[in-house]
């Protein structure tokens, strides 16, 4: 709209100038040279005045608009978007131009306000997290941004330039700022004469002609200690329960037998020693002791598996081995065992002996879950995911696992079975971790369980 009004006003002024110059040219060309000079001047002067006036008016009109735009661009150059242009006075096209300038200023101010809000929001988030973050100029070492967590982890009160750390602790400077950590690396560094374990990663980026480096630093010592402590608490809780279950009857029975022997020694006539009872008691102590010894051996087996003997095998061949091993025992229990391979011929690189052990263990668990179930069925399925992972699934329609205990099934010695050791799933998980894979369990109580081995 402003441009149309400006164009119309410009055309009118240009036409006035054109007609005044045309009139001046015509008047000069048609003058009778016999006329006196004063008369010539009288005829020409009006056209000269009109031409000069038209030219000055056109020049002022154009220059005033350019002056307005020059002022606006000068404000933009110095990022002064707070200026307000009068929208109520002056020519219509100037008022429209001012409205446009003010709209641009309002828009830029709103954008800057949003950016500032987002910046403060992001800054507050980065300040609250426990991960240390620092960005600095690679050439000058000047800090672009650093949060409190980074300074706290390195025990540095303030940080303006990374050269400060170079002078204070060259080894720390070399490890964090010079060495390249494009992936998440674990490093051990010494802070205040104490070694701590950190997770570190960095990335380089450019802003205009400057190169910057972003470093992420996270102290994982506390996390590892906490996780280790929790694991030990669970392990000791289960071990204590198992050991007490074995020791309490042994102690009670031994005390009873000792009391009978002492009474018999003091007065064998009135308190004869029943050798049969003594033999039964000693046999019970022996069995309980053997059970406790077996428990200790089972615990020791957790640390036996440390390396793999990998080979590539067809899943169908692996399933054939499992079928040969498990079919006879399952037929007697009237449990249907089904093998499905969705991506035949599918190959996996595994330690065959160990994975067979895992599958047998999981199938036996499924058999236990299918007790007293109508039409019990166990499915051993193989499939390939979109991401290229090989997955073996053991699916049953048994009684399932209650939600309150499913998170504890991989804890060593945790079991809900009267005769179970609680070590099977722990070994399965360790074997899968050695294969750099994972074991996942999904279960719905009274509907069944699905265990996935992801390679």
UniProtKB/TrEMBL annotation:
Q: What is its EC number?
A: 2.7.13.3
Question: What SUPFAM superfamilies has UniProt attached to this entry?
Answer: ATPase domain of HSP90 chaperone/DNA topoisomerase II/histidine kinase (SSF55874)
Secretion signal span: none
> Which keywords label this protein?
ATP-binding, Kinase, Membrane, Nucleotide-binding, Transferase, Transmembrane, Transmembrane helix, Two-component regulatory system
InterPro entries attached to this UniProt entry:
BphY/WalK/GraS-like (IPR050351), HATPase_C_sf (IPR036890), HATPase_dom (IPR003594), His_kinase_dom (IPR005467), Sig_transdc_His_kin-like_C (IPR004358)
> Any transmembrane segments, and where?
37-59
Q: Which GO terms describe its molecular function?
A: kinase activity
Catalytic reaction(s) noted = ATP + protein L-histidine = ADP + protein N-phospho-L-histidine
According to the lineage, what is the superkingdom? Bacteria
What sequence ranges are listed for the domain Histidine kinase?
A: 238-455
The identity of this protein, by name, is: histidine kinase
- Please give the organism: Flavivirga algicola
Q: What is the lineage of its organism?
A: Bacteria, Pseudomonadati, Bacteroidota, Flavobacteriia, Flavobacteriales
